[in-house]
């Protein structure tokens, strides 16, 4: 009889199909053909997910850019709305005028 999972469509003990096992190529001795096959599968998976990843990266970049531009725009808007320096300047001018009026006197 063949080794379990080596071509059997079903595992005779549990009645289920064999499941792929994770392999650590640094611990297990693999043939060059097996390593080449692993590289091919990894490359195929990477290429399959590349358009999806690219789309997500573009959307993320646009989102971050929109937030940056919104903060930048809001900063300019709020600085243009600030009038407290103008008010302080007006008060300082009025105080100087009162001081000159008192100094030039009665």
From TrEMBL:
Pfam families: Coa3_cc. The keyword Transmembrane helix applies. The chain crosses the membrane at residues 58-77. The keyword Membrane applies. It is a single-pass membrane protein. It comes from the Eukaryota. It is found in: Mitochondrion membrane. One of its GO terms (biological process) is mitochondrial respiratory chain complex IV assembly. Residues 45-91 form the Cytochrome c oxidase assembly factor 3 mitochondrial coiled-coil domain. GO terms for cellular component: mitochondrial inner membrane. Component of 250-400 kDa complexes called cytochrome oxidase assembly intermediates or COA complexes. Core component of the MITRAC (mitochondrial translation regulation assembly intermediate of cytochrome c oxidase complex) complex, that regulates cytochrome c oxidase assembly. MITRAC complexes regulate both translation of mitochondrial encoded components and assembly of nuclear-encoded components imported in mitochondrion. Required for efficient translation of MT-CO1 and mitochondrial respiratory chain complex IV assembly. This is Cytochrome c oxidase assembly factor 3. It comes from Vulpes vulpes.
């Amino acid at each position: 009889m063949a080794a379990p999972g080596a071509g059997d469509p079903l595992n005779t003990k549990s009645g289920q199909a064999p499941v792929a096992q994770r392999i650590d190529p640094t611990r297990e001795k693999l043939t060059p053909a097996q390593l080449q096959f692993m590289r091919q599968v990894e490359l195929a998976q990477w290429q399959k997910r590349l358009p999806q990843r690219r789309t997500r990266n573009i959307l993320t970049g646009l989102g971050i850019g929109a937030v940056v531009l919104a903060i930048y725009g809001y900063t300019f808007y709020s600085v243009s709305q600030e009038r407290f320096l103008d008010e302080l300047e007006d008060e300082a001018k009025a105080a100087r005028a009162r001081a000159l009026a008192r100094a030039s006197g009665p």
